[in-house]
Amino acid sequence: MPFPHADGLSLLLMALTTLVVGASTLHGVRYLQASGAPRRRSLLLWPLLALLWLALCTLFASGHLVVQYLVLEVTALCAVALMLLPGSQASQVAGRRYLLCTLSGSLLLLPSVAWLASQQPDLSLVALAEVEVAPWWLAVISAGLLIKMAGFPLHGWLPPAHAAAWVPVSTVHAALVIKAAFFMAVSVWTTLAPEALSGAQLLGWLGSVAIVWGSLLAWRQTELKGVVAYSTVAQVGYLLLLFPLLFGTAEAVATLAWQSTWLLVISHALAKAAMFMAVGSLVLAMGRGDLAGLSGVGQRLPLSLLVFGLAAVSLLGLPPSGGFTAKWMLLHAAILAQQWQWVVVVAVGTLLGAAYVFRVFRYCFIVPEQEQTMRVPPVTLDIIALLLALAAMGLGLAAAPVVALIGGPP
Amino acid sequence: MSLAHTLLMTVAWPLAVAALVAGTLAWRHGRALVEQRSSGRYVVPPGVAGDWLSRWRVALWVSAPLPALAVALALPEASLTLDWWLLGGEWRLDGTRRALLGFTALLWALAGGYAHGYLGGKARRARHGDPDAERDLQAFVLLWPLTLAGNLMLILAEDIASFYTGFAIMTFAAYGLVVNAGSREAYRGGRAYLIMAILGEGMILAGLLWAAASAETLTLTGLREGLAVAPQANAMATLLWLGFGVKAGVIGLHVWLPLAHPVAPTPASAVLSGAMIKAGLLGWWQTLPLGLTALAGLGRVVMVAGLVAAFAAALYGVTQRHPKAVLAYSSVSQMGMMTTLVGLALLAPSLWPMLAPALVLFAVHHGLNKGALFLGVGITEHPPRLPGWLLWLLLALPALSLAGALASGLIAKWVLKAGLYDAGWSWLVTLLTWAALGTSLLMARTLWCQAHAWQEARRHGAAPAPLSMTLAWALCALLAAVPWWLTLPEASAGAVQATVLPPWGELPGLLWPVMLGAVVTAALVVACHLEPRLHARMSRAERLPPGDLWPLYVRLASSLSDPLRRGVARLSNAEETAQDLAAGCGRHAIAWLTALQRWEAWLRRWAVPLMVVLGGGLWLALMR
Amino acid sequence: MNDNPGLLLAALATSLLVAPLIFLLPERAWLARTTLNLGAALLKLGLVALMVAGVARGDSYALGFTVVEGVSFQLRADPLGIMFAGLSSLLWLFTTLYAIGYLEGSPNRKRFFGFFSLCVASTLGIALAGNLFTFLLFYELLTLSTYPLVVHRGTPKALAAGATYLRYTVSGGVLLLIAVVALHVLAGEVNFGQREVLAELGPEHHAWLIGIFVLLMLGLGVKAALVPLHGWLPQAMVAPAPVSALLHAVAVVKAGAFGIVRVVYDVYGIALSYELGLLAGLAIAASFTILYGSLRALAQVDIKRRLAFSTVSQVSYIMLGISLFGPMGTIAGLAHLLHQGLMKVTLFFCAGNYAEELGIHRIDELDGVGRRMPGTSLAFTLGALGMIGIPPLVGFLSKWYLGMGAIQAGMPWVIAVLVASSLLNAAYFLPILYRLWFKPGPLEGCGAWPEERRLGRLETSAWLLWPVLATAAFSLLAGVFAGLPFSPLSWASLIATQEYLP
Description:
The complex is a heterotrimer.
Chain A: H1 8-35, H2 39-61, H3 65-84, H4 89-119, H5 125-128, H6 135-148, H7 158-164, H8 167-192, H9 197-220, H10 224-240, H11 242-246, H12 251-286, H13 297-300, H14 302-316, H15 322-336, H16 340-365, H17 379-397, H18 399-406
Chain B: H1 5-35, H2 48-54, H3 58-62, H4 66-74, E1 78-82, E2 89-93, H5 95-118, H6 120-127, H7 131-156, H8 160-178, H9 184-215, H10 220-229, H11 233-248, H12 256-263, H13 266-287, H14 296-317, H15 323-347, H16 352-381, H17 388-403, H18 407-423, H19 426-460, H20 467-481, H21 494-498, H22 507-530, H23 532-541, H24 550-605, H25 607-623
Antiparallel strand pairs in B: 1-2
Helix pairs in contact in B: 1-4, 1-7, 2-6, 2-7, 4-5, 5-7, 5-13, 5-16, 5-20, 6-7, 7-8, 7-13, 8-9, 8-13, 9-10, 9-11, 9-12, 11-13, 12-13, 12-15, 13-15, 13-16, 14-15, 14-19, 15-16, 15-19, 16-17, 16-18, 16-19, 16-20, 17-18, 17-19, 17-20, 19-22, 22-23
Chain C: H1 5-24, H2 30-57, E1 61-68, E2 71-77, H3 79-102, H4 109-128, H5 132-150, H6 156-187, H7 195-199, H8 206-224, H9 232-235, H10 241-250, H11 252-268, H12 270-275, H13 278-298, H14 303-323, H15 327-358, H16 369-372, H17 374-388, H18 394-408, H19 413-438, H20 462-480, H21 488-500
Antiparallel strand pairs in C: 1-2
């Protein structure tokens, strides 16, 4: 019962969790020192992060619906607490909204899990594979999970929360927490609804809109953190494209889509974590968070900018990066399944992605009118971020062992 | 190094001279700059070129064509293969090439010596710091050997690439010689020259590519043979004929000649009209299937064009006031006669064995004599200290020869006439003879203009020509008149040698055009003196500008190019409009996107209800 | 699969590893950076030369590993790739030299040279890529690494040009990605040279193949500046002159053209492309581009803009050569790949020299420059005459083989295009030469230079002058000695022989 599901994918995700949480912790120590966060509050960060790590690992490893649900709630509560840590006005508002959203999601999850438990004694995923569920059940639990993973149009809580949170928190949240809900959604759907084709298509379309919407808004942001946060919204959209390609398609397509999505999850987690860290350094150095402050930053903080660039390359799916290889496989699956709409969506998403990423760089190349004073943050911050970003890049060419571990869909 | 490699020397030496000139100029320039490093300003040192020209190094420069001359005189038949060169070089020295090479090198050598004297004044001015003189001189000393190298290369080339290379180098380098005087007229003439030359190059390139590719060959012989059997031979040959026709002054394409020749420095005019114009003829010779097959249609056109040129140019030429313009028209007229012969060869290939040596003879004769005549123009402008009779004798010698009254002219004419009579083309002979009347008139006109110039020069006390000028000119006149080249070993004119001199009985038939020309001229001169109205009318005719059709072409071209320019402008505008439109759309889109953020706030506020709605939607979807 | 991977990796690493090193050096470390740059450029040239010799001997160099199932990363040195690699490393050396002189004293040199190295590393990767996946990898990397160079100056104009550049190239890249993936779906992995894979697909797949080909051409055509995908090129000329040289001659435009060469010869195979009627379409597109670019160039008054449109026109010669079915066309296309690089790099260097030394940007300011800067002007003259196609410069060889190829392929109308293009080239280059050499300028007392700086002891700084002279000399010598082994033409002939005589 404890780890019935410890297959390659779980192991990978656990390793990822450990890596990202570990890196965030290391980064966080220095970052909070450097940013001068109140000590009393920052002390709370470590136990919460540890709890979060434990919960996530349990989630990825467990093959039991109830366990997954419970752990997801723990994750969410930890995340809310972490979000509230800075104590600023913005973080309070955002954290409260996050709490409201995630709890209302839970309001849908709890009855559905309870109802299923009343119908079915054994809620382990292996046993559930034989069970047929009613459409409303799937709809309710999916809606609940969707709001937790910030799927369009339920993503509204995410950007303000990321913008207001401490960098190590945003890092972990964007990289892992929302993926947890996605993980659970995938395991529910693959176990209980392998035939729900039209629903899968709908999720695919939601994902497409998320890609476009998230990228467009990311493009229009004036704050650096806003760009990164909305890019997460768009990235969740890519993840949702798994559903239409996984269900009701040939095995080759399903395998490709499956592998590509998890590869994307991993590379996105690494890249997004690195990006948040880089942004953290930049904001710290500039003393302001808007894009216009970036002019002339390249000379002072080349390393942070480099990290941002590498992470952006992976997010955009430009080679050679994990994001690229994942996108390649996703396109391969879509073309193989002759579902051209996703090809178009991915293409548009890439272009819009390039638009918002290069908008950031554009500001970096503007020659500043007067020399700004910048605090150069400790170089260890950048080195941790660089390692993560390099890992995301390396995943592009060394994808073979990772993909082998991911394996095929259940 | 085999003997054949001396062929390489003939071209390499002028190139080396050009390189040496360039190197010296660059070095002196650079050193002067380094010396004035401290001043912080950039001042071109004065007199670099003038200095260069005046020292003994000028011998190098004049020596440029000498290897070619030596090769033409002494080297046995040879061929040279150069694997590394372009598409694979193949150079050859055979009968025709020897004759052309010899006379070309000779003319260039003499004109080079002449140029030394001709440019003496400029060199002095350059040494005294005149920047314009300095610039002109630099261009001249550099481009002269370069042009020569091109001219020699195209003669020796047997492979198409070398031939075209030589042709192109010669054409483009000669532009600098044409505009060397730097005046407005020079640039006008230069523009006419260059534009026509480029059009010609384009047609040549098209013809060469088409024909060579169809025949899958890299040599001129292969090209000719391929053209003889190619299905589209007429089109290819037309392109080639027109392309080389620009250089050879085919009527209609000749307009640059009377514009460029009067403005170019006199030695340059001499080689332009004497040697380079023959490159066009050689082009035809080397590329058209002469003697291999009949291209009757094209042949007729070529013949007609040639005859029209022979007459029209003579008629127009006599109205010109500048002796060089008259000479240029004479060149057009003479080349018209040669064009006619080429056309005849296209029409009746069986005549080629007879025509070929005659054409070579004609070309060489015309080249040297025309060179001498051009050089003479400079002499009358700066009369040397020679007794008048000698001066005028030397001036008249090439004129008479060209008109066919003397020496080489007489022989050339006789050879042609005899051959054509034998082949039954007597009407052509008649026409050509009448054309010779035109030549006589042109020659008379030239001398007349020169006499005016001479008187003018004497009245103003113009500085006498330096010795080198006089010497080169006198030598040229003498060598042109004496048909010495017939004594060359295995001259192509093998057939000619037997019938070198016309029998006495034929002389009246050969000489009457000259006589008639002299009579007409004399009559006109007398009549003008007696009848002022006639004189006035003649003077009006003298106002006809050189370059006859050129203004028409300019107008035509501008009326064609204006729509083109407008079209291009419209293209640019269209692209800019499209960009503006795109930018406008972009702005709109961005405004719209900014508005989108309102919806984002709405989504944020209603997230929970939306979740419920979404659940419902999913349910509906799943029900299906 | 892995033969002599060391040399390949070393060649790639020379510039790839230099990039981070340069980033690590402080901005002030001029000497160290210059040494590093030049050392890497020389080392790479040496390594590539070794490979050229090796490939000529028949050695093979390959390196590969699987990325995911059915997709592998392949580096390979075949004659075609090594030809492009040779070009890029040779011109990189000169461009580096030039850039060192050009950027002397300007800010952000570290960034510039870092991305510069990265850019050349990508170009080398493109040259040595063994399949479309690897090609795509480096192709996109090239886009990324050139953007900072285009916007280097940071002015609004440069930023706008950079945005346009990205708009075009990223869109092209996405199309290319889709096309390559679709090809994978259709036929699995196709290594360059495995032409039989696509040729053996049945006729039912032909519609697919045509569609994918069009997508590939659209994707590659952006960088190769096929009209109407050329819009970025004239705008990108706001970049510093060495970058323009890089864009126009060494890397970007060439990468597009090289990609088209690869697709036609090594993926589809010339026979299949011909059979599917793709070559005719490409020929028409290329011809249109040639004429359009020349016409637009006529109307430009800015030197670099005129050169940019000339690039649009000239690069399509490569495509035209490829689209002529037959060995001659192949030779023409491949040789022009090198020839155009040599000539264009010269011309852009010259334009840069005029701008740096005298502040000249417009054509009507060029009066009499020939006397002030004879070396540069001589180089410009050689480049321009070469572009027109005057022998014995290299441009003539390209035109000659194009003409031969046109007849061989049964498309004599191409000759008309060639001649028209030559005339247009003459029409927009000769007036410049005329101004340079024959018009009186400030040295004769007419007007003044816009902004004269005395950068060096000679006509300009030695860093700027010698690379120009060297590339000009190369474009002359490569023409004169075209018959020697290892000349661009001979090498192109070697490849063409392999293509047609398997």
